[in-house]
Specification:
Layout lengths: L6 E6 L7 H16 L2 E5 L3 H6 L2 E4 L26 E5 L5 E4 L2 H10 L4 E6 L1 H12 L4 E5 L15 H22 L2 E6 L6 H10 L3 E3 L7 H13 L5 E6 L11 E4 L7 E3 L2 H13 L3 E5 L11 H19 L5 E6 L2 E6 H4 L11 H8 L7
Helix pairs in contact: 1-9, 5-6, 7-8
Bound molecules: 6-O-phosphono-beta-D-fructofuranose.
6-O-phosphono-beta-D-fructofuranose binds next to strand 12.
Amino acid sequence: MPTRIKRIGVLTGGGDCPGINAVLRAVTKTAIHQHEIEVVGIEDGFQGLIENRTRPLTWADVSGILTLGGTILGTNNRSNPLKYHVGDDENGEPIFINAIDKCLETIETQKLDALIVIGGDGTMSCAAPLVEKGVDVIGVPKTIDNDLVGTDLTFGFTTAANTATLSLDRLHSTAASHHRVMVCEVMGRNAGWLALHAGIASGADAILIPEIPFDIDKICEFAESRTTARRGFSIIACAEGARPKGGEQVVARHDPTSADPVRLGGIGAQVGSQIMERTGIETRTTVLGHVVRGGGPIAADRVLASRFGFRALKMLVGGATGRMVVLDGVRLSDVDLLHAANKQRLVPLDHPLINVARAVRTSFGD
Ligand code: F6P
């Protein structure tokens, strides 16, 4: 198909996740092999677009990267062109500027006819003003949190859920041997998808997710009932965004230079120490943290990332812009990029997986 697009830029924004390189490979190889389109890699997400840091992506550059974790381009979850941190004032307060014009300059200098942006809700919202300025942009949904509105699945999630599951599996044997409660905190931001999937897959006894605030008394009763029973141990999969009824999420850190300054973390330790204090049962807490984000993608994510990358390139060639590729059931489709910007897809309270878990007596602490 003839196309006016001769040269495209591709960037990866937000936190990395398994499968980004598989998208880069699919985009670049399809562009070169089927359309003779040149591909330019933009380094470190929107920061590279603002600072005009790019490099060509050749066939050789993307060969052998299908199975690699992270992103060969580098990424950044702090640089938002609408609120770009350029230093601090005399009181130490961060100074932000609107750097959209800098992005447009790079697009012009690099002679880019279009952009593919791989990222989460933050990346899509950074891309939206470029679409408004007339840049052709297609988004590819990426996050281990699986919290992007508009798509049933983001690539990277299945691998992260798998890693969390394997870790929870390992906690089982040591929990059983010592008759302990093991609390395992997993990432996921404000959504409970990772804890829910990993908890069900590993047979966790309790799953705490942000969408269902927990009652610590109920969790303690549950742990006590299991400890006095024959199988005297409990595994609790705890989302980093989980919170007690009437309470707040636990914030590990604030990054004032980031457009999304809150970093969650610490609820697992709080739940663990409260269980130990109230019940006397020996309790330990493990925080999986960035372990679930690292490493190469499992087969399902390699396939999904390849499908997304191929589809994004074909959409650009077909003249589409301002759209994000999505998975709708088992089929690929696309939605308005703005639909996904700055929103989060949380676990609905009537989600079938919650019933599946409750049916085998998994507690949500409610
Ligand atoms: O959005 C991906 C994610 O890994 C979240 O699950 C987590 O809350 C956050 O990023 C951690 O961010 P950082 O890498 O800045 O610590």
